[in-house]
Amino acid sequence: MFAKTKAFSGFSVDDRGAAKTFYGETLGLDVSEEHGLLMLHIAGGGDIVVYPKPNHTPATFTILNFPVDDIDRAVDGLTERGVRFEHYDGAEQDEKGISRGELGPPIAWFTDPAGNILAVLQQ
After folding, report:
1. Contact criterion met (CB below 8 Å) for 109 and 117
2. How does pLDDT run across 67-94, given as a tens digit for each residue?
């Protein structure tokens, strides 16, 4: 039924302006506005809808992952732009917040202005 449908994902934020600045300027994504919504245009031609929600509750799981070739360079660059990385109790993370465990690739988590969890991970 949906095999040929161009599906897309979306998530909510409590402040569309702060989200536009964060995703467009801090993260450097191509962002547009349509009908009161933000559209994040990501590599590969996909779009993600970001919609304002007055009673927004931040996701308690990772909603968006950014694969990179060099996680240390990405984390350092984001830190220079004011991004703070999460440090989770019980997680084996270095001083930068990068988890380099045996399960999965090196990964570091951070939040957007609405508190949604994002991640950068080494391919």
Report:
1. yes
2. 999 999 999 999 999 999 999 887 788 9
Q: Are 30 and 41 in contact (CB under 8 A)?
A: yes
Q: Which helix (DSSP H) or strand (DSSP E) does residue 74 occupy?
A: helix 71-80
User: Is the sign of the CA dihedral 97, 102, 106, 112 positive or negative?
Assistant: negative
Band (22; pLDDT cuts 50, 70, 90): very high
Counting other chains too, the contacts that 46-51 makes at CB distance below 8 Å and 24 or more residues apart are: 46/8, 47/8, 48/8, 48/9, 48/10, 48/11, 49/8, 49/9, 49/10, 49/11, 50/10, 50/11, 50/12, 50/13, 50/16, 50/19, 50/23, 51/10, 51/11, 51/12, 51/13
DSSP 96: T
**Three-class SS of residue 14?**
coil
Burial 50-67 (b: 16+ CB within 10 A, else e): bebeeebebbeeebbebe
**36, β-bridge pairs:** none
Confidence (pTM): 0.92
